Q: What sequence folds into this?
């Protein structure tokens, strides 16, 4: 065997050993069942069991409708956003994953959820990705903006610019989750500010969970007041009635 052949053989063996070492270091257990899941945060079985939204559904708010038509509520009181793209139903065990991400700082879930969201939104459908902003006081309390961490992989996957500065939250309101549905719209009114002319821009507005949609609708209203031509909501989960 020539020296060149020996060197090539040693190089191949070294690469194989390095590859196995990397795979071992990156291997992890599924967050839900604890079984080995290679490099994914969920194993295939658990990922396949996550609750998807039923079809057909209203294109505006993503709630189920008989034939995929716009629901009565959106017809009677059209929201400021134009459509909603949601990956999952906010049910078990997806709800536990989101709570772990949001309050348990499981930031690795942002990449997983971000890939799911990017698959729903072709790049041609938007010009800009905007995360739903947090008030600075809430940001200090939580330590990160869950919508921004979701928006990062979405923007990267779609090749779209990410803007986390133009739209800010200027009112520190009580958490929407602790309020009755009918009070949420009043609670969030005037909570956002936009510092840029968005004339003609199509916006993907990203958040983790959409319940009544009051916060997202108010943010969409603010974006449209500053010229946005279209605002599409992109959320990990939609709460069903």
A:
């Amino acid at each position: 065997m020539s020296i060149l052949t020996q060197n090539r053989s040693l190089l191949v063996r070294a690469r194989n050993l390095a590859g196995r070492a990397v795979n071992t270091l990156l291997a992890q257990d599924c967050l839900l069942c604890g079984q080995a899941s290679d490099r994914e945060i969920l194993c295939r079985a658990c990922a396949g069991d996550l609750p998807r939204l039923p079809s057909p559904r209203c294109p505006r708010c993503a709630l189920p409708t008989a034939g995929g038509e716009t629901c009565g509520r959106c017809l009677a009181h059209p929201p400021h956003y134009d459509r909603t793209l949601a990956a999952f139903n906010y049910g078990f065990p997806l709800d536990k994953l989101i709570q772990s991400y949001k309050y348990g700082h499981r930031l690795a879930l942002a990449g997983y959820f971000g890939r799911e969201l990017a698959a729903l939104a072709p790049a041609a459908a938007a010009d800009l990705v905007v995360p739903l902003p947090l008030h600075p006081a809430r940001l200090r309390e939580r330590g990160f903006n869950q919508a921004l961490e979701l928006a990062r992989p979405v923007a990267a996957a779609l090749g779209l610019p990410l803007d986390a500065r133009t739209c800010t939250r200027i009112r520190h309101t009580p958490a929407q989750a602790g309020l009755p549905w009918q009070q949420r719209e009043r609670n969030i009114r005037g909570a956002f500010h936009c510092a840029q002319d968005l004339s003609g821009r199509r916006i993907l507005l990203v958040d983790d969970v959409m319940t009544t949609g009051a916060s997202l609708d108010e943010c969409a209203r603010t974006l449209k007041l500053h010229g946005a031509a279209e605002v599409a909501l992109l959320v990990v989960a939609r709460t069903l009635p």
Remarks:
- The domain at 55-238 is CATH 3.40.50 (Rossmann fold).
